[in-house]
Amino acid sequence: MSTLRFALAQIDTCVGDLDTNAAKVLEYSRRASEHHADVVVFPEMTLTGYPIEDLALRATFRKAAWDKAQELALKLAGDGLGGLYVAVGTIGTDHDNGKPRNRMIMLHDGVVWGGYDKHFLPNYGVFDEFRIFSAGERSKVFEINGVRVGVAICEDIWQDGGPVAKLVKENIDVLMTMNGSPYEEGKTHVRFDLACKRADELQAPLLYVNQVGGQDDLVFDGGSFAVDYDGTLIERSPMFMENLSYVDIDTDKTHQDVSTVAPVPNSDEEVYTACVLGLKDYMAKNHFTGVCLGLSGGIDSALVAAMAADACGGEHVQGISMPSMYSSDGSKDDAADLAHNIGAGYDVQPIEPLFKAFQQQLDLQSVAAENLQARIRGVIVMAYSNSRGLLALATGNKSELACGYSTIYGDAVGGYAPIKDIFKTKVWQLSRWRNEAARQGMGIGGLHIVGNEDGWAGKQVEGDIIPVNSIVKPPSAELRPGQKDSDSLPEYELLDKVLEAYIEHAHGRADLLADGFDEQTVDTVMRLVDRAEWKRRQYPLGPKVSALAFGRDRRLPVTNAFRE
Amino acid sequence: MSTLRFALAQIDTCVGDLDTNAAKVLEYSRRASEHHADVVVFPEMTLTGYPIEDLALRATFRKAAWDKAQELALKLAGDGLGGLYVAVGTIGTDHDNGKPRNRMIMLHDGVVWGGYDKHFLPNYGVFDEFRIFSAGERSKVFEINGVRVGVAICEDIWQDGGPVAKLVKENIDVLMTMNGSPYEEGKTHVRFDLACKRADELQAPLLYVNQVGGQDDLVFDGGSFAVDYDGTLIERSPMFMENLSYVDIDTDKTHQDVSTVAPVPNSDEEVYTACVLGLKDYMAKNHFTGVCLGLSGGIDSALVAAMAADACGGEHVQGISMPSMYSSDGSKDDAADLAHNIGAGYDVQPIEPLFKAFQQQLDLQSVAAENLQARIRGVIVMAYSNSRGLLALATGNKSELACGYSTIYGDAVGGYAPIKDIFKTKVWQLSRWRNEAARQGMGIGGLHIVGNEDGWAGKQVEGDIIPVNSIVKPPSAELRPGQKDSDSLPEYELLDKVLEAYIEHAHGRADLLADGFDEQTVDTVMRLVDRAEWKRRQYPLGPKVSALAFGRDRRLPVTNAFRE
Q1: Strands A141-144 and A147-153, how do they pair?
Q2: Nearest CB partner across the interface for A367, out of B64, B360, B386
Q3: Highest mean pLDDT: which of A89-93, A113-117, B437-441?
């Protein structure tokens, strides 16, 4: 009888942090061994973290990673784990040309076994792998306890042909894949369908181990799984948290046993959690323990504050109300209520005296005077950040970022922008969802995310977290009397539909008109988006949750005179 | 007898501006025809501009470019230029997979001839071509008036093998290359040596036509040339300006006749001019006619102001002195002198009252209080920018950018950063050079650059342009009493050497110690550079003049915990 117990180690790594990543491999290997695993599989580029971008090009880093792998193999053996097969990702070197390679290695018996180099190097959207790696060309099969284990790394299963196709002739018993597949709304189904297709081609079960956690502006959702040759789901790990689960592969069985199958969150919970995890990890990996942000009473800052409270606890959130002469009383109340609901610190810093001091010297009019207010607020937020060591959060959403409807160096200041990839209509939707979740018992910090394995608990809130008034009132920047967003932009219900078609689906002017949008709206939106490219480049990092996020995916020249 | 007159059309294109680029092709073709040219050769991606980045992925743009090429072919024929062979670069489509291609087409007799697709797609440093294009696989030879003309596009001659190697068997009479090769100090020699190597392989003359002008953060220096099969220089176009020159290829001659050979500027003039051209084109292509910047009396803002005056005329430069309680009288005088020398507008906006107003509310200490001063200045600079439609210039140099020695949203604000790729020691060197050039008759705006073909003239200046005091005094941010840069940083003479080794040559810690730098300096510099990654991402665009400029070439993860 040939059976093999695989442990799927869905872990959160940090780019460049070889020590911590290696320690985590050791810890998960120990736990896997205690559960009688034979093989433990980690995500893509486990030791180095992923994506490492041009760090891969530093020879000193490659050497350090190589030394760390050898040290880790010895340590595993020294700890009595030498019999375990530990499959980790790391960086290798192409001996022909010295270029880095995206490599899987097997640690066993105190030795680093030669492994497998990723063949297909994605170079679209958020990926720059062809830029930094050279491609592997050989497939790889490990024979472990009589079980033939094939290997693939992430993109290798997304493309037809290559080493996975070659494995069809190799009569493998199981395909083990290591992945660094970033989150995108709805991607769970795409990955599963793809895995089923490859399992069918290979007529063998497929193990899909994915990274979890935020890394700069990417969020990895985990959601590792295993699928049988016939498309039966035999294991699914939870999303957005570290996890270790087990799959037994028995070559004598026609169908593999079904192991644990975690539930999948609904779409709002999924997106919200991705944003929270992105922020939480960005803070942890950059050594921030608290955040500060302006609270205007509007919906954007309210949602960001709620996310921040869920990420680090309300007591580590410093809200700053910065009313001007144009701020309504309702807005001030909404800001105070929100801060109270999440248990945040709350300071009021009126900007009128500062505005007057500037105006005495500068005497600005119209938009310049509006920007001045936003920039005074930016200075105050950064003063809190600098003097208290807090991460400043920018609260802009994707709709306003797309249209350039924000003040650069004003409301756009911050080190991280949690909702930069969330359209305004989705901001409202997520806010409603968060209030509903609170009613169902999800307290502050009660998400299923890394480091919090207690499930929906957290600090309970009476009533709504986000004041209903912030959700239902017409959006306004409140930079002049009676100002409304709709003075400058189409209504968001319409705007977001046009933006999605224009940006994410790359529809041109003729397509947009054929989509049924009216000419004036189309021309307004296209003009705004085309002109805002420079401003988008200056925006802080923020989590990618959509098919196309600004910053990572879309690289347009600033000096771009193309107009349809 | 087989002779062919080639016109080398070194032009400045704008990305996405199909109309203007096509009009320029028409104009240069007309001039070439008047000089009896048979073939006129334009730079890489002439019609679309270069580099077009992800704009290539928009189907509507590709269609518009294709339509424009056909319209242009007809227009050339309609204007009596149908007999001319007009070689232009544009974007094509790979019919197998729909991906864009970097294409050369030949316009002749009112028709767009099928052309040649670039084979080697650079994907390192500033280049992202493999990301957006698919690779051509066939070489191409045009037979024109009995002369066999081979074609290559830029990177095709930088790599061994490929279509150029195939041309060796094709017995071509001349290789015509279209290039979009960005400026880098000292690259002129590298290009020439490379061209000689290929000409020798082909045993045929090589024509190298390069783009000129600034495009976002790249500067193309032109410097087109032709080299005979034996390495003899037969033509060299001037750098940094549009130009049309001619090369006769006579297949009956053993050696081709030498045409015009433009002089090459010295290294300081070259770098200075690259910065000025980058700024000038960034302004023109983004429709700015003037700039504003803070003038501190220090060397960085003085050099940037001089460059700005050379780019757009002193009368379009608005200097703003923003003294604080810590500003020395010397600094205020130096700022005023500089503004006077270049003929700039000059306003004084003391920041003390504003600083006091903020401090009354915030009571900040130490670095937070220093940053507050810089951010108040940032607000003022942006107020000038917004209210007067001026391009705000950031005056930071590469040394401080590398070390994070600047205030984000403070002195780093601006739309363009002319010296972001210039180390501090080079800032002094260029300042001295500019003063010396003025003594030799180079007035304000008197550079050999696009749009100014009058040579070294410009508005004459009496004495120095940049006050000697700004050059010789110890650098200080003047944000607290008696502050000096050397309180926080190693002396610049040393710092810049370490930075160059660490950043541009990717030396690791052990290498740097082996280079002879002392341990404390090495550790200080590495720590500063490693921590400043996020701040560098927020920096405005600026011209690349070195082997490795921040922004374009170096993509490091922000959350990067690798420490040697």
Answers
A1: antiparallel
A2: B386
A3: A89-93
Mean pLDDT of A324-337: 91
Instruction: Check: CB of residue B169 under 8 Å from CB of residue B204.
Output: no
Residue whose pair of structure tokens reads 């120095």 in the numeric block = B464
pLDDT of residue A547: 87
Q: B532 contacts in A (CB within 8 Å)? A: none
Q: Can you give the pLDDT at residue B548?
A: 85
| Residue spans of chain B under pLDDT 70 | 1, 449-456
B70 touches chain A (CB under 8 A): no
Give the residue extent of every domain in chain A. Answer: 3-263, 269-483
Complex ipTM value: 0.95
* Catalytic residue list contains A118: yes
Nearest C-alpha neighbor of B83 from the set B18, B45, B32 = B32
Q: What confidence category does residue A332 fall into, taking pLDDT thresholds of 50, 70 and 90?
A: confident
Pairwise CB contact (< 8 Å): B216 & A387? no
User: What is the phi/psi pair of residue B226, to 5°?
Assistant: -135, 140
Token pair in block for residue A383: 């003063």
**Would you state the structure tokens that stand for residue B81, as one six-digit string?**
């230029």
* Fold match flag (B3-264 vs B269-486): no
DSSP B262-301: -----HHHHHHHHHHHHHHHHHHHTT---EEEE--SSHHH
A312 is catalytic: no
Nearest-angstrom CA–CA distance, A319 and A121: 43
- Domain B3-264: what homologous superfamily? Carbon-nitrogen hydrolase (3.60.110.10)
Q: How many CB atoms lie within 10 A of CB B220?
A: 29
Whether residues A57 and B506 touch (CB distance < 8 A) is answered with: yes
Question: What is d(CA B291, CA B344) in angstroms, rounded to the nearest whole number?
Answer: 10
Q: What is the C-alpha separation between B297 and B469, in angstroms, rounded? A: 9
Interface of B with A in 189-218 (CB under 8 A): 215-216
Q: Which of residues 325-364 of B touch A (CB under 8 A)?
A: 349, 353-354, 357-358, 360-362, 364
- Give A-chain residues touching B51 at CB under 8 angstroms: 557
Bond before A182 cis per omega within 30 degrees = no
Q: How many residues does chain B have?
A: 564
- Between the alpha carbon of residue A134 and those of residues A122, B125, B241, B493, the distances in Å are 11, 16, 38, 38
Contact A274, A219 (CB under 8 A): yes
Are A450 and A12 in contact, with CB atoms under 8 Å apart? yes
Give the other-Cβ count within 10 Å of A82's Cβ.
Answer: 16
pLDDT tens-digit series, residues A501-554: 999 998 999 999 999 999 999 999 999 999 999 999 899 999 999 988 887 777
Q: Which residue of chain A comes nearest to B56, CA vs CA? A: A556
Query: Residue A128: is its pLDDT beyond 60?
Result: yes
Q: A23 and chain B: CB distance < 8 Å anywhere?
A: no
Q: Report DSSP state, residue A182.
A: B
Assigned CATH topology for domain A3-263: Nitrilase/N-carbamoyl-D-aminoacid amidohydrolase (3.60.110)
- pLDDT (0 to 100) of residue B455: 56
CATH homologous superfamily of A269-483 equals: HUPs (3.40.50.620)
Calpha distance A330→B68 (Å, rounded): 55
Cα Rg for chain B, rounded, in angstroms? Answer: 25
Tokens of B421: 């790729």
Interchain contact, A379 vs B375, CB within 8 Å: yes
- CA distances B322 to A380, B333, B347, B352, B396, Å, are 20, 12, 8, 9, 16
Active site residue A169: no
**Catalytic-labelled residue, pool B24, B44, B270, B497:** B44
Superfamily name with CATH number, domain B269-486:
HUPs (3.40.50.620)
> Residues B407, B401: contact at Cβ < 8 Å?
no
Q: How far apart are CA A216 and CA B559, in angstroms?
A: 6
